[in-house]
Amino acid sequence: MKATAPITLTGLKKACSQCNLFELCLPFGINDSDILRLDELVATQRRIKRQQPLYRTGDTFEAIYAIRTGSFKSDVLLEDGREQVTGFQMTGEILGLDGIGTGVHTCNAIALEDSEVCVISYTKLEELARVIEGLQHQFHKVMSREIVRDHGVMMLLGSMRAEERLAAFLLNMSQRFTARGFSPTEFNLRMTREEIGSYLGLKLETVSRAFSHFQEEGLISVQQKHICILNSNGLRKLIQHQASVR
Amino acid sequence: MKATAPITLTGLKKACSQCNLFELCLPFGINDSDILRLDELVATQRRIKRQQPLYRTGDTFEAIYAIRTGSFKSDVLLEDGREQVTGFQMTGEILGLDGIGTGVHTCNAIALEDSEVCVISYTKLEELARVIEGLQHQFHKVMSREIVRDHGVMMLLGSMRAEERLAAFLLNMSQRFTARGFSPTEFNLRMTREEIGSYLGLKLETVSRAFSHFQEEGLISVQQKHICILNSNGLRKLIQHQASVR
DNA sequence: CGTATCCTTGATTCGCTTCAACATTAGTGG
DNA sequence: CCACTAATGTTGAAGCGAATCAAGGATACG
């Protein structure tokens, strides 16, 4: 059974056309006349409580999801219980693309806080994409960018050391908060040290130590999940410099 | 200037309909009447010599490529020269998906041996995908599977130790050779120890030592690039077992 | 056939993990 | 609203796995 029942958007038929996230989301680049047709695509929303799954590995794939409020992590579990977090998703970002290839989801999507997603029927999306060129193109862009993002994570995991990885992670978070109209320098992380560590291929103690070290160096200030970036160029240099040292 | 000039398929207008790779490639699942229409999509081929790039980071994105013969590596370079190999591609597999998102390629595709690729104009692909449902769906599947594959690499890099990574790599290569009608147990690697290492987030010496250790254990036999898998279950157990030890 | 590239193996170093103890925060029920 | 407890985060000390440094050997290519 699903964690939450789908709720229909009765008074909210104008899902995309009135959504302030649209420029970060799937409808981006689609002209005004076409965008109204997207509203039928996003017929339902779902609310997911903190720590609850939007979908799980093995679930039948039927839809992709656009995050309206809140945030998620995606992870893959090995049989022995090891977890690899493959990404963190914020508002406007798309979840569920992993299921298209096999018709079954290959990872878990877990809410990091109480969240709402727009449910986008994949069948309907394919239909509409055949008619609306902009939608087709934008959808392909979203998938391609996910591939490029994944390559960036491989770069992190394969070629960078602990503090470089964390610096890159913080700069990435900052950039994404900025794109959503929040402060580039001050934000609250929604994930634990362990989840950050899993994403970056590190143990939680190493993440904690790196945070403390950055603070000693005056690069950031940390209080639990609250982060202030005091010297973003310093973080950037750390990635470059430690690199050339190697 | 390109490394090789594109060559038109004069006598080979039936690019996809007569290709024996089609079940591994983009046209898979498309019915016979539609598949003839794909032939116009694949109007040209390109030959790429060993060590030469099919495309480079920064090149304008115009087409995706299906490998007809040979093999490639994809890599990302950091400014300081560090290389991260993001994947190895074999016949039937698709290259260039990274370019759709930004219109510019974000990685290099380098031939590991003299190779031939089918050039698939992206504009034409989008057009045809709007008409041929099967093509649209298959293209989405290809992209989705690339995302899932990337998640698998993240799992390798983030949560596994050196010998587990190499075991997983060998089993993956074996499986892909098998799918192409070659022996599951005996094959020649096309890449160097350094390239394997880069892909797996290890140094070449570590890769070499792991190969030697597998040989001592009777799991494989290695002679330079020639690999015989003697005990594939042993390799599989190594991934499971070392996992639970952690 | 000669030379550059690739591979193997050993000794040492170093960065991250592991183990452990404690501090802090968040969540729960009285 | 406060007390209590579980979850999360910090810090220190020791151990280990992979990187680094170094030298020699095999192979492929022009």
SSE blueprint and pairings:
Two copies of one chain form a homodimer.
Chain A: E1 7-8, H1 32-38, E2 44-48, E3 53-55, E4 63-69, E5 72-77, E6 83-89, E7 94-95, E8 108-111, E9 115-121, H2 122-131, H3 133-159, H4 162-179, E10 186-188, H5 193-200, H6 204-216, E11 220-223, E12 226-229, H7 232-245
Antiparallel strand pairs in A: 1-2, 2-9, 3-8, 4-7, 4-9, 5-6, 5-8, 10-12, 11-12
Helix pairs in contact in A: 2-3, 4-7, 5-6
The structure holds a DNA duplex (30 and 30 nucleotides).
Q: Taking strands numbered 1, 2, ... along the chain, how are they ordered across the largest sheet of chain A? A: 1-2-9-4-7
| CA gyration radius of chain A, whole angstroms | 19 Å
- Count of DSSP E strands of chain A? 12
- Mean of the pLDDT scores of chain A? 91
Shape of chain A: globular
Task: Describe the protein's architecture and organization.
The first copy, chain A, is an alpha+beta fold. Chain A folds into two domains: 22-146, Jelly Rolls, CATH 2.60.120; 160-241, Winged helix-like DNA-binding domain superfamily/Winged helix DNA-binding domain (Arc Repressor Mutant, subunit A, Orthogonal Bundle), CATH 1.10.10. The first copy, chain A, contains seven helices and twelve strands. In chain A, the strands form three sheets. Chain A has a five-stranded antiparallel β-sheet with strand order 1-2-9-4-7. In chain A, helix 2 packs across helix 3. The longest helix of chain A has 27 residues, at 133-159. Chain A is globular. The termini of chain A are far apart. The model of chain A has no long low-confidence stretch (mean pLDDT 91). Chains A and B meet through strand 6, helix 2, helix 3, helix 5 and helix 7 of A and strand 6, helix 2, helix 3, helix 5 and helix 7 of B. The structure holds a DNA duplex (30 and 30 nucleotides).
